[in-house]
Design a protein that fits this description.
Strand order of the largest sheet: 1-2
Distance between the termini: 10 Å
Shape: globular
Structural class: mainly alpha
Radius of gyration: 24 Å
Largest sheet: 2 strands, antiparallel
Low-confidence stretches: 28-40, 42-49, 58-67, 325-368
Mean pLDDT: 75
Helix content: 40-55%
Order of helices and strands: HHHHEEHHHEHHEHHHEHHEH
Length: 401
């Protein structure tokens, strides 16, 4: 999985998109009247032959074209606004109104170094009232494993964020080490700024990707080839194609032969964040819970407590600590990506909570490789921590072998 464009190219592109977005917003209201005037002028100047050709094209298009265009437009609007799929049978009459998502904005200090202490533990506190109804009912609240928000399962159902298939999963995992991500944290696309989102939408449009559709392996590889060719004007190397195939398999853990739209969108969102933002900027996206999981991981791997771990151990964390465990796997290992609030009695609350035999032994070559300190450990793994947020079993960022 190679880099599809340089950071400089990507930044320049997003800056151009930012200017285009402003211009688009300013002219959006004027567009219909201008368009009608242009169409009227064209109609007056057109010849009989042009009118005949237009009539033939409309006849071939059939009556379903306006409906498809309307559905496609709605899908693109949901993508732009960060909303999920809204099926036609969704009954809004008995639902709460979903929140209006506000995309984040970049700050001037985002790229400055961020000091995250290894020794100083952070106090993890959840909200006391439901994020939706703002009512406190103690044990019936379900905490998010990423942020501080808590929810009632009934409120989530009325919001449309908890369907029958996922209701049991939330109730079973929300108070366990696996944990559950709320609808804010589950959607990696909401980490993108408005300018970054328009840049991603432009790429999807150019590659003829239909929003809210599943992608087969051929679709996924064709998309990757198109993106690479558009950006570098050459064919994607074989090694990158093989990495893209591995990424598809990681996004399809159940071997269904296709990947869901939300998983594809999460993958593309984290890819864009990696390309356009510095590691310091990505570190600012981590929550207190995620930073605490990272501390536990580093301290568990740092067996001699000298503040350094080997490169092989860091790679091990990338492949195991920051990925989701399958539901059927029973493991006593602490999963950074899915641990809920840490209690004092939890094995994860101790510095030596993970015994040496539970850590995969490093090879001699890995033992003699470079040493990585705590800040380096965070920088190298921050993208994988963020990629582990969604509840889906898919692996949204496949580590390099």
């Amino acid at each position: 999985m190679g880099v599809l464009m340089s950071r400089r190219q990507t930044v320049e592109r997003v800056q151009k998109v930012s200017l285009a977005v402003s211009a688009f917003k300013d002219g959006l209201r004027e567009q219909p009247s201008t368009r009608r005037r242009a169409e009227a002028g064209t109609a007056r100047q057109g010849t009989l032959e042009q009118e005949v050709e237009e009539g033939e094209e409309e006849a071939l298009a059939g009556p379903s074209q306006p409906e498809e265009s309307s559905a496609s437009k709605a899908a693109w609007e949901r993508l732009r606004d960060g909303r999920g799929v809204e099926p036609e049978e969704f009954d809004r009459a008995k639902r709460f109104t979903p929140p209006a998502f506000i995309r984040p904005k970049r700050e001037l200090h985002d790229d400055e170094p961020l000091d995250i202490s290894l020794e100083q533990r952070e106090q993890i506190l959840n909200d006391e009232m439901c994020e939706i109804c703002e009512v406190w009912t103690a044990e019936s609240l379900f905490p998010c494993r990423i942020c501080h928000r808590v929810y009632h399962d009934g409120c989530l159902r009325r919001m449309g964020y908890l369907q029958k298939d996922s209701a049991m999963e939330v109730t079973e995992t929300a108070h366990t080490e696996t944990g559950w991500s709320c609808y804010y944290c589950d959607n990696l696309n909401l980490l993108l700024t408005e300018e970054e989102m328009y840049s991603l939408m432009e790429t999807l449009r150019n590659c003829k990707i239909i929003p809210e559709s599943c992608l087969t392996q051929d679709d996924f590889l064709h998309y990757k080839h198109q993106v690479h060719k558009q950006q570098f004007e050459r064919t994607m190397p074989k090694a990158q194609e093989e990495q893209a195939t591995l990424q598809f398999n990681a996004l399809d853990p159940d071997k269904k032969g296709h990947i869901e739209w939300q998983d594809f969108l999460s993958h593309e969102s984290i890819q864009l964040l990696q390309k356009i933002r510095s590691q310091n900027a990505l570190l600012r996206l981590l929550t207190a819970k995620e930073r605490e999981r990272a501390r536990i991981a580093f301290l568990a791997l740092d067996q001699d407590h000298d503040g350094f771990i080997g490169e092989g151990e860091c790679r091990q964390a990338r492949h195991t600590w920051f990925r989701k465990h399958q539901k059927e796997m029973q493991s006593c290992n602490v999963s950074i990506s899915h641990v809920g609030p840490i209690s004092e009695g939890s094995p994860a609350s101790s510095r030596n909570g993970k015994s040496p035999e539970k850590i995969l032994p490093a090879t001699k070559q890995e033992e003699t490789s470079r040493s990585i300190d705590w800040p380096g450990f965070l920088r190298e793994n921050v993208a994988y921590i963020l990629a582990a947020r969604p509840n889906s079993a898919a692996l949204h960022l496949q580590p390099l072998a």
